[in-house]
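Key idea: predict the complex, not the pieces.
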Amino acid sequence: MKRFSVAHPLLVIGAAVIALLPFQMSGYHTGLGAHVAIFFIAILGLNILTGYTGQISIGHGAFMAIGGYTTAVMSHYHHTNLILTLPLAFAIAFCFGVLVGIPALRFSGVYLALATFALAVSVPQFTLKFSKFLGGSNGLQTSTTKTNAWIYGVSWSCAAILYLVAWLVLRGRTGRAFRAIRDSEVAAAASGVTLPIYKTLAFGISAAFAGVAGSLFVIATNGFAQPNEFSVFLSLTLLIGAAVAGLGSLWGILVGAVFVALLPTVSADVPLIGSSHGQDVVFGLIVIVIMLLLPTGFAGLLQRLRSLPGIGTAVEKEAGG
Amino acid sequence: MGMKGRVLAVFAGVIVIAAVAVTAAFGAHKADPGVTSSSILIGGTFPLTGVASLYKTIPGAEKAYFDYVNDHGGVNGRKITFDIKDDAYDPSKTVPLTQQLVEQDKVFAVFGSLGTAPNLATWSYLNQNKVPQVLIATGDSYWGFSAKKYPWTIGWQPDYPGEGKIYGKYIAANTPNAKIGVLYQNDAYGKNYYAGLRVGLGAKKSDIVSAQSYDVTQTSLAQQILALKAAGADTFVIFATPSPTITALVTATKVGWSPTTTYVNNVSANRVFMQLAASNGASLNGVVSTSYLVSPTYAPQANTAGVKLAKAIIGQYAPALLPSLNGGDANVVYGLGAAWTMVYALQHAGKTPTRAGLMKALKSLNVTDPFTYPGIKVQTSPIDNFPIEQEILIKWTGNGAAGDWAPFGKLFSGVR
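Result:
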């Protein structure tokens, strides 16, 4: 994201492509496109937490569940406008993120991963516990459903807005504090960065992004929220997406989102081993290959390309020196 | 524009209008999607992987039946192609997969999709797009009661409240002075069953001495069962999904409670589950449930047309499922039965099948499906959107895990 200005013309072209795609695609493909946006937002949030403050989370599916159920509950019981539920989901997920971030201060590394994993497993169970209010295993549906084109438009708009928010947060003091924490907590503390505040803030922001992604996720599932949608595998999928994306690149996050949103569908059509178990095999194989070849994710690949002589200087020239 | 130009323009305009009209006319006579002169494409979403993957034998059996039909002339000469999609019981996968079936694969109908939540998630989408959502594999009664609002959706199996009603009617008629203790799951599933029981009992609902609910997240049911035992219940009714049912049966035996009769709901009555309960120490004496399918393991039914046909079809077209069938897995028979009804409806959906024709056929059924228990009729009408409403009571006979279900008595109707 440091090289935001460099990608200006590419950004415009990319935005134009995204804006025009739905007119060329069927409703089904537009729905897939919306899922890319949803994963983009969630992975962006996870990137802020894991990539910028170094706190691992295998529990972001839980924050998506919180956002998703906020939308479902508000729309189902109070007929709230679906768009209005999005900032509400942002706020509620932010609060939960902060609440989780506070005890998480005590953990790091694999222990933090386990704690967030426990979150991923337990949060969907709440919907079964309070099944009368939250719909239980028969789920909860919003009072209105929207077309895939609507969902696509709103999802990508949210993606653009939230990317801007992330960029603003990360380029300033907060971003520097986050990076300082990731590089060395001791050094950061010594430099005057109040660790608890910034670490918790990172959790909150990251959870808020996941919350919005969860809201859009529910809206994209025909407005239907159900615990099976937020299984542990969703959290793992987000982590895989973040790993494929790498750190610090908009395009990386886009690639990561496209990867996790579309690969399962594509791999189901692979001949021979395609369909049901084959899908998992293909998906798993590709993840392993990517991790072996690109340990720093797609962003790392871009960085290496830029550092190649010739390309690097051309890019610098474009950026205006 | 000169005179010549204007004539040319009018001429061109007429041709364009004529072309559009002709195309529209042809369009009006175009067959519904998924139907060609030699094939019909149908599809459905099933949990081939994930938490509910034990039901994957159902689409396997359905495909076997369609293959059998294709080898014997198909549906009025058309072969059925069955597109099985795996949604892992996750509605967020069911929705895109169903959209894929409808918009990309262009299926004629969505058939047999499994699960209440997955079908609820696609209910409004399919009806808005006027795509048949038929013979879906779920016993909830939403589909049966919503024929007006969602005319393109219909279930197949007897619904849960209807089944609860049958237990109530049987208890009221045969053991009117029973002391009933009910254990039900604290969600729509268990509550619908319990409501059906109370309706079936009628005036005898006062026989219920205690009703304990449990959350599906609870692992121990000891507290509830001890409460039922303390209330003096001699009839135990369990409205739970398979896992808690097994737990309940085992716990009841372990706390030394031996009710005269225990009623277990059909979903949890698969022979496999009973054997699991018995091997964990549950006494299966006096356990009763219901069935609406022929039994591949009950000796007196071995020569029924349905059982013989089932063994022949599975043996030839899905031999991998034969051990399950011979072991008493009712899901295999279920798949064959639902597929039979689908083929029957397709055969009566018009010379060139249409979606409207399919729904009309499904809403005016009056036929005997060979895979259902002898005597059961698959019947629907404009006011009856529940294809199967009759069930036979079955009792667990034989020694513990080596036993099996044996039907007894007469057919009961869960008619609302």
